[in-house]
């Protein structure tokens, strides 16, 4: 058997939960075998990993690419380069574009642009309601046939409970996955921070974390009624976790995710009104951050994503209350996540379970694994390399990262999709 042999690698297997030295052979775009002892390299191209970490490529659930409508913020080409540099081999893209991705024709445009412009795999999500307006359900069946991997109105909550219930019922009949952004929309409207003494002292309009719990409780009640498949994205507060735990214990088909910013930052980071720290949902208290880290460790929270949301300078150079929400994260997801590894909060297999294996499993994708037969989507990285992040070196068109100037540990060395190198540091 000939192919490419990665030797002297620290193999991070999220499924087995192991972190071991070994070798991995790639042939025909797939992982052919994993070897724990000496490997016969006859006929192979040999890549010596130098004891660095080799893990499944990251499957990033919830990436905003601003095509169509806002290419000045991010294009498929720039997002693809950023993903490759960040070890992200699969991007699951959001439909909150201009116009909204809510028809088969628009999905076909996405697929065509992705194939032309990006070296990574793209799986687009479609809107759940037309125009993300929460009034009329999209043609879920036609959009599934056109390639929609899931359905979501992104950060807009479907306020009309009857409409949302109807969407869940129809999605269940087709086996489609619905992704929600749990917040109580009336309480959350206009909020830029989490309520508490800090927000009051800074004079920032705020919302209680209970708004997230209220939103999640409603969605879970409808889930119990309809039996649909549901994923709650961007959970951020300890208050929401008991409801999630009860739903899982009751056997509901529910998973949940957290974004990297809510795992590594807290409300105090917005102290000098830096709008790069303005996110949706807003940054929470340190107790919430620690609760979310523990929930990832226990498996209660299934996925970690970047929630990559590019914003231009004009929309961020405004008073904190008026500035646009969101941060880019494709390139910073892995080094930021490694903060948790270096703090002994999560192991590398736990991190890649949440960043690669679990999102792939939830979406029915064969990626995110280190096992024979799986696609050879891989990231080689040095978990200890020191990096001082300079936002102007990011490959995204938008530079709105809260990690500008941060001292991080961890650097992507090479990224491979289907065994083909798409990035080298």
UniProtKB/TrEMBL annotation:
<dbReference type="InterPro" id="IPR011059">
    <property type="entry name" value="Metal-dep_hydrolase_composite"/>
</dbReference>
<protein>
    <submittedName>
        <fullName>Dihydroorotase</fullName>
        <ecNumber>3.5.2.3</ecNumber>
    </submittedName>
</protein>
<keyword id="KW-0378">Hydrolase</keyword>
<dbReference type="InterPro" id="IPR004722">
    <property type="entry name" value="DHOase"/>
</dbReference>
<dbReference type="InterPro" id="IPR024403">
    <property type="entry name" value="DHOase_cat"/>
</dbReference>
<dbReference type="GO" id="GO:0004151">
    <property type="term" value="F:dihydroorotase activity"/>
</dbReference>
<dbReference type="InterPro" id="IPR050138">
    <property type="entry name" value="DHOase/Allantoinase_Hydrolase"/>
</dbReference>
<feature type="domain" description="Dihydroorotase catalytic">
    <location>
        <begin position="51"/>
        <end position="236"/>
    </location>
</feature>
<dbReference type="Pfam" id="PF12890">
    <property type="entry name" value="DHOase"/>
</dbReference>
<feature type="domain" description="Amidohydrolase-related">
    <location>
        <begin position="285"/>
        <end position="420"/>
    </location>
</feature>
<dbReference type="Pfam" id="PF01979">
    <property type="entry name" value="Amidohydro_1"/>
</dbReference>
<dbReference type="InterPro" id="IPR032466">
    <property type="entry name" value="Metal_Hydrolase"/>
</dbReference>
<keyword id="KW-0665">Pyrimidine biosynthesis</keyword>
<dbReference type="InterPro" id="IPR006680">
    <property type="entry name" value="Amidohydro-rel"/>
</dbReference>
């Amino acid at each position: 058997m000939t192919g490419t042999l990665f030797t002297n690698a620290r193999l991070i297997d999220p499924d087995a939960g192991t972190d071991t030295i070994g070798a991995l052979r790639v042939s025909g775009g797939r992982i052919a075998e994993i070897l724990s002892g000496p490997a016969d390299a006859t006929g192979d191209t040999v890549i010596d990993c130098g004891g660095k970490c080799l893990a499944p490529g990251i499957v990033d659930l919830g990436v905003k690419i601003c095509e169509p409508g806002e290419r000045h913020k991010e294009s498929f080409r720039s997002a693809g380069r950023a993903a490759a540099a960040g070890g992200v081999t699969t991007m699951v893209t959001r439909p909150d574009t201009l116009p909204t991705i809510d028809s088969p024709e628009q999905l076909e445009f996405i697929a065509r642009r992705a194939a032309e412009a990006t070296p990574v795999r793209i799986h687009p999500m479609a809107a759940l309601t037309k125009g993300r307006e929460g009034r009329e359900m999209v043609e879920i069946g036609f959009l599934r046939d056109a390639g929609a991997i899931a359905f979501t109105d992104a950060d807009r909550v479907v306020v009309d409970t009857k409409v949302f219930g109807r969407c869940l019922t129809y999605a269940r009949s087709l086996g489609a996955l619905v992704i929600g952004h749990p917040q109580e929309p009336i309480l959350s409207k206009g909020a830029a921070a989490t309520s508490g003494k800090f927000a009051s002292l800074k004079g920032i309009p705020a919302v209680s974390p209970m708004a997230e719990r209220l939103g999640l409780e409603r969605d879970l009640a409808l889930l119990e009624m309809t039996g649909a498949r549901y994923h709650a994205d961007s959970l951020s507060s300890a208050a929401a976790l008991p409801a999630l735990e009860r739903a899982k214990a009751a056997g509901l088909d529910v998973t949940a995710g957290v974004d990297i910013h809510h795992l590594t930052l807290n409300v105090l980071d917005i102290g000098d009104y830096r709008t790069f720290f303005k996110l949706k949902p807003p940054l929470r208290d340190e107790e919430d951050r620690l609760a979310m880290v523990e929930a990832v460790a226990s498996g209660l929270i299934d996925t970690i994503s970047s929630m990559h949301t590019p914003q231009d300078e004009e929309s961020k150079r405004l008073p904190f209350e008026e500035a646009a929400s969101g941060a880019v994260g494709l390139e910073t997801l892995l080094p930021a996540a490694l903060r948790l590894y270096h703090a002994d909060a999560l192991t590398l297999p736990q991190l890649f379970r949440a960043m690669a294996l679990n999102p792939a499993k939830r979406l029915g994708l064969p990626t995110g694994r280190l096992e024979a037969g799986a696609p050879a989507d891989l990231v080689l990285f040095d978990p200890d390399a020191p990096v001082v992040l300079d936002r102007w070196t990011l490959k995204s068109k938008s530079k709105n990262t809260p990690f500008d100037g941060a001292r991080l540990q961890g650097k992507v060395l090479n990224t491979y999709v289907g065994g083909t190198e798409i990035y080298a540091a």
